[in-house]
Amino acid sequence: MANVELKPANVFEQFAKINQIPRPSKHEEKIRTYLKDFAKEHNLPFKEDETGNILICKPATSGMEDVPTVILQSHMDMVCDKLVDVDFNFDTDPIQTYVDGEWLTAKGTTLGADDGIGCAMELALLDANDVKHGPIECLFTVDEETGLTGAFGLQKGFMTGKYLINLDSEDEGEMFVSCAGGINTQASFKFTREEAPTGYFFLEASLKGLTGGHSGDDINKKRANAIKILSRFLYMQQDKMDLHLAQWYSGKMHNAIPRDGKIIFAVPADKKDEVKADWNTFTAEVEDEFHVTDTAMEWNMSSTDAQKVMPKNVSRSVILSLQAVDNGPLTNCQDEELKELVETSSNVASVQSEENQIVIVSSQRSSVMSNLTNMANCVKACFELAGAEIIQNEGYPAWKMNPNSKLTKVAVEQYQKLFGKKPLVKGIHAGLECGLFSEKYPNLDMVSFGPTLRYVHTPEERLLIPTVQMVWDHLLEILKNMPKK
Question: 18 to each of 96, 147, 466, 482, how far by Cα in Å?
Answer without folding.
Answer: 12, 22, 20, 29
